[in-house]
Every structure is written in structure tokens, then in C-alpha cells.
Amino acid sequence: MALWGGRFEGGTDALVWAFNQSLGFDRRMWREDIAGSIAHAKMLARQNIITEAEGAALVTGLIALRDDLESGAVKLPEDAEDIHSAVEGMLTQRLGAVAGKLHTARSRNDQVSNDLRLWFKNHVPDVIDALTALRLQLTKMAEENMGVVLPGRTHHQHAQPVLLSHHLLAYFWMLSRDDERFGECVRRADALSLGAAAMAGTPFPIDRDFVRQELGFAHLCENSMDAVADRDFAVEFCAVASLTMMHLSRLAEEIVLWSAPEFGFVELDDDVTTGSSIMPQKKNPDVAELIRGKTGRVYGDLTTLLTLMKGLALTYNKDMQEDKEPLFDAYDTILACLTLMTRMLQGARFKPERMAQSLYGDFSTATDLADALASEGIPFREAHEVVGIIVRESIKRKQALEELTLEDLHRYDVRFTARALDAITPIASANARTSRGGTATDAVRAQLEKAKAKLQPNGK
Ligand code: ARG
Question: pTM of whole model > 0.85?
């Protein structure tokens, strides 16, 4: 049954009814819808817009309905138009005509916005918690692997040795910015839209601040038209989720690469990998690949919402019913990806010996050799030239930098000292980079302490 039958002589075409129906996806806001109605009913009675007895009947009826839905004693009707009509319909069945008073000074336009904001407030913190768990896991791995060195890359070529802990903590900081963004996003959604009614406000003497307090919102939407027309918070969530997914996808890509045999830098646990139906040797990093793949879907959700909203004259337009599926999809996807990324990392075993092997003979400490010469007083440009020649000739001779003796170095420049040889081991190279935020063990330990402090409840 529709909530708007009076004006119509004919019924709705079955196809149109199905096309218009949103219960299939907005049913997941049923708790929020009932909570909003309870607060609204209490306010109507307090303001003498309805009688105390009517208010009590509505509140008791809504609470009983909520408990019955929660316990599974009753189910939402399949044939309702949306969650708002479903709840009101069930309440009418239970209470009769008095249920019709609930919609006084309210419209589905402010109701749907309010439900969505409440849902947001109730659920986005789960994403933030999952993000915190992943950030914690990254700090744990950074701590456990302190001293492990691997090639740092630019252009995907070996650049300079870095600590694995440094590499992992780079993701910690990306995700920490995302944590702040999600927090901001929740704060901006934290405003009551009820009271805007259809879009212009209401002549009834409502008390919006009472409803705000009942529902735990920090603010009131200050403009009734903005209240029903705004979906910025949904767009913002999808934007932040897209950025977070981009970070997860880059990490996923590195896990995929690192678990390939040519790298062998990490071995994933059996329980997060899959085999092949044809190739018995395969152990595929499906979870990482799926996280990378699902990034596209969240970008799609963002694009859907931005496109949905861009041409809408104020205020509510039915197009906006299409806001929920992308928002819920982005939410479900990012929550699953964060949870599974953490699971995958918890069982990941890093292979320091493979990392050391890949550093051997890769010339990634050539900068250190040049620095060593420069620190003997030779202009860096000149030192760079000398080391460039050493690298070129060593490659020709298939000789690693690590194999050069001081005598060998002297053939290129007599100003080399034994310090040069000490400087070109991967760990010495990393440890030389003591600048704040650099990859030296001491600098990374200091960074790790900062990261851990940021994870403290007051460390935001
Ligand atoms: N199902 C609708 C939505 O999700 C609820 C609001 C309907 N409002 C209206 N004026 N038809 O947007």
C-alpha cells in the first residue's frame, strides 16, 4: 500500500511500482528509521502537537515493532514501497489510525535524509575501527622486522636500500590521513535534518533541538532546503573510501609482486591464498588481487554519486533514491577490504634472505660510494662521475659493488679510503640516512614511536 493514495484515481502500473520501489536496499536502515520515529513521536507529544496518550501509544508501538524485527518474530513486508512506508504500514496494522499521526510535521524527504545520516553515524565508525586495526598491524610488522633491508625503488628500478619497517610505515601514514578524513566525514554528517519536513519547514510548533538530543546528533541542519537536498556526506564518504582503496590497492600490488617467485619477499598464509584447478604448484594471492580489483568499484560508486547529484535543482528529487546503493556498496567493499588486508598481513611471512639476495650486486649503494668519495672533499658531481664509471665497468665484468677491494677502487680514484667499503653494505647505506623521516634504524624507531602514539585514543 502506498502512503499517497488519496490524490489518485488509478493504481500504479506494476512495472512502475517495481521501478520505484527502494525497499530492497533501504531496508538496511530500518533501525534508524524506527529510532527517528521514536524521537519524533516523543517530541510531538511534548509539544502538544499530539496528545500524551497518542505519543505513548506510538512510542510503545515502535519499540515493540523494533524488538519484534530484531528478534525475527516479524519480518518487513516485501511489497512496501520503501523502508519508511514499510515501518509505518506495520505500525498501522498494530495500532490502527493513531499510527497516522506519526507523520505530522514530517515528510519522507527529511526522514530519508535523517535515516541516512543516522545510519552513517552508526556505521562509519566500523570502517574507522577496521582502519585502525590495519594501522596497528602495520606498526606490529614494522616493529618485528626492524633491521630487515630490501631494495627501495623509483621507476620500479632498485634505487637505495631501505628498511622493510620504513616501507611498511609509509602505508601507516597514508592510512592515518584516511583515518582523519573519515573522522571529518562523520563530523560533517552529524546534523539532524528532521524538522525540514518536505523542504520548507513546518507550521507545527516542533522542537528540533529535542529531537537532535534524543538521536545524539551534534548539530541541526540550518536550512530546511539544504537539509533535504544535501548528500555531500555520502559523496564525501565515497571520495575518502576511494582514496583509501587506492592506498590498499598499492599495498595489494606490492604483495602480489613480492609473493611472485622472482621476488619471493613474502609468503602468504594458505588460508588467504587459493590454488589452481590445473596447475598444482600455484598459490595465488587472490585476496590482494581482489582488493586491487575492488578499488575500481568504489571509484565507480563515487562517480555514480557525483553524477547523480550534479544536475539536481533544489530540493529533493527522486533521483536521490539512487544514492543508497553506491553508498552501501562502497561501505561494504571498503570494510571487507580493510578486514581482509589485515587478515592477510597477520599471516604474512617476510623473507629477509631473499631481500638480501636481491640487493646483492644491484648497485643500489652506488650513491653511498659517491657520498664516501664526496666526504673526502671531492665535489659530488665529480664523485658521481667516478662511481658511474665503476658501475659501468663492474656490470661489464659481472662484478658486484660489494666485491670491490680498496685496491680496485684506487684504480678509479686514489682518494677512496676504507670508509668507502664500509659504507656500501645495504644496512650501512640505510643506517646512514639518519635525517628525520629517513630510513636509518634510529630514525625508523623514532618514526615507529610517533606512529604508535598516533594510535593512542588521544593521539589523533
Ligand atoms: N525512497 C525514497 C528515497 O530513498 C524516500 C523519499 C521519498 N520521498 C518522496 N518525496 N517520494 O529517496
Answer: yes
